[in-house]
Amino acid sequence: MSEQASASSASSASLESSAGALPASFEYGDLTSGEIFWRDHQVWLHEHGYLLRPRFLPGSLARAHWVDDPRNHAVPILETLEVPDDKHITIIVMPLLRKYCQPRFDTFGEAVDFFSQIIEGVKFLHDHNIAHRDLNGLNIMMEGSKMFPDGWSPHHPKLNRDFYSGRARLYTRTQRPPKYYIIDFGISRQYDTRDPPPLEDPHRGGDKSVPEFQLTEAGEAPEPCDPFPTDIYYLGNLILHDFVEGHPDYEYRNRLRGFGFMRDLAKDMTAPDPAERPTIDEVVEPFAAIRRSLNFWTLRSRVVKVRGFPDPRRPLRHWCLRIGYILRRVPAIPSYQ
Question: Which residues form the Protein kinase domain (predicted)?
């Protein structure tokens, strides 16, 4: 996949890899004389693994590419706007998203839904030979419009859209399930084949701990490596740091209690030797088994931090709300679909 920044390319004839095409749910103006060449050669370019921006595509191809598959958790592109007074700039319009963990997860069932969606999203990418190459917690976000029916302030997500009239009204993830999205495809790539595995020079993203990116014992630069096991490491490390063990630098702030059921799988995913890590297909099956093993009360139970000052009123409020869910037969594991 070409860099996401290529959508803001300096030339109207710039190309994106076929995995990086922008969904076209809108119409463009007439093509200029200089653009007709690209329209007429789009089939030939597509055969060689490149897809032109939707402006140059036949409508059926543009609408059919990528877009409506529910397994797709890549952030959607709603529209592109060409700046009239600067041909070198294109504005990309995306949904307003929130950090995936804000507000906090209320129940274990909500967290299990998060794991399910992100594993599904990574599998979708890998099934299309796309390696994200920077799957850290900052690049996974949440579409929260159902949870926040009146919106929120982009400057301060806990407040109303106008920023000064109070806290934003919200529902829990159980009441209004969100969809989680993978963002920032700036260093992502799509490959023609994974047999033999593609080898890429290390490109360090937000998570600097990738074992295969470290200097050798002799201080030499690391060798080119397969980016797909690195994606698995990123995902496993996110689960370890944000749920199971806490980040080594911020353990006091974000370590949660009770996620030991994900430890063994996350440890396998973060094996120091990339060859020993499971593929995403080999993650799906054991995770499904973990999901099936969690009982009703675990899934309904409240997620709490290891440290902090407990509020004795919170468990009572929690179970009063949960009993209401049970009586109304609201699923313990939410589903955005």
Answer: 1-288
Could you tell me which of 95, 18, 93 has the C-alpha nearest to residue 54? Answer: 18
**H or E element: which one contains 80?**
strand 79-82
| CA–CA distance, 335 with 239 (Å, rounded to integer) | 20
Single pTM value for the model: 0.78
Residue type, 306: V
Q: Where are the domains of the chain?
A: 4-93, 98-327
- Whether residue 157 is predicted with pLDDT greater than 60 in this model: the reply is yes
Classify residue 196 by burial, with Cβ atoms within 10 Å: 0-12, 13-18, 19+: exposed
- Residue owning tokens 């295969």: 212
End-to-end CA, the chain = 27
C-alpha dist (Å) from residue 108 to 237, 262, 273, 295: 19, 11, 31, 11
Q: Which residue has the tokens 């929120």?
A: 152
